[in-house]
Amino acid sequence: MRGSALALVSLLLVALFAGCAGKQDPGGSTDLSATSTQTGAKALDTPLTPLATAVAVSGGDWVAPGASLDVTATPPKDATGDVTYTWLYGPMGGTAPITVMKTTQTAMIDPGSNASITFDQAGVFLEHCHPHPWMRQNVTILDNGQPPVTVVTHFHDGASVGDFRFVPDTLVLPKGSTVIYQNDGSQAHQTMLMQQDAPVTQLSLKGASGQVSASGSGWMRVMVIAQDAAGRFGRAERDFYVNPLPTPLTAKYDGSYNLTAPSPVPAQPPSPLGSSPDVRAFTSERAGTLFLNFTSSDAVAGTAPTDPAGDQSAISVDVTGKGGAPKVASTSAPSDKGSLTGRVGAGDYTVTLTPVAGEMGTYSATLTIVYDPIPPPANPYSDPSTQLGSAGMSGMNMPGM
Ligand SMILES: [Cu+2]
Hints:
Helix content: under 10%
Bound molecules: copper (II) ion
Distance between the termini: 45 Å
Strand content: 35-45%
Order of helices and strands: HEEEEEEEEEEEEEEEEEEEEEEEEEEH
Largest sheet: 6 strands, mixed
Structural class: mainly beta
Oligomer: single chain
């Protein structure tokens, strides 16, 4: 047991402190309290406030599967010494199956006593104390094939009730691990599960930034746990919705003007050949961004000595709603090529292609509508306090409530 626990030391990135591999008690469990060799027990008299940690993830709330996202943790300004980061990724609770662990709370633990919880399921567990619900602990259990370990968490009272706390308040452990809750205070404490979230996996990413692939589907979460040399933790997460993006609408319009009456010697302007526009219709499913690229080429210049419109092969292009409104995009002047961009909503639209008077030519236009992502369904677990109301929060005695 001791050997396997020690072998795991390097894996327990979050649970261990820099330069301190934890101490072994006679029972073979690993004591992960903040009693580091550097600071000694005295440090425990000062509440370990959480590090102010933030995480940024590139992209919007909706990203395509497989998208590579840039993730950056903001180094906590209040950290002491080097900061290490543990990155985790997984579906959010409520969007993935959760097997609730067998034991979700300890009995009331008197001062000097202890009790334990074996975390027999993978997941993210937000624990609180009863009757001091502001005492919080985050236990992340990974199904990573590593053998389970036993670690000790201490209840510390501090100078006032607001200082009551779990030490450490953050753990990352293999599935099947046991946490012994040792009451070092003078009050009775009890550990209760407030929320169990879906299992996450640890990313190979180290350091404050890197790339994460948007795997899975539905609401997913990137979580980072920062730890400083003093044994303080910070935790930040960012949720986003992974789903295939809407299929764009594409259409290609090819056509010509006046080629039904070709002549080696084109008529002189004003052209008897006319210049009636071509009107093409399309239907937009819903709101999106329209892109239209066009080219036109002169059908006469290569085969005749003169051309009524000179060497022009220009056309004007207008995109409007059916009947002319609303106006989506237009060329500012006739051109032989160009790109238009505009916004469309759901409905019928037309592309109107108008040649320069008298011109003989061909054109080609490509239309693309990139539809806006549909807003994803509401994030079901954005607020931990709404979860497990009957199982974990009953009897809570929040200050001021
Ligand atoms: Cu308590």
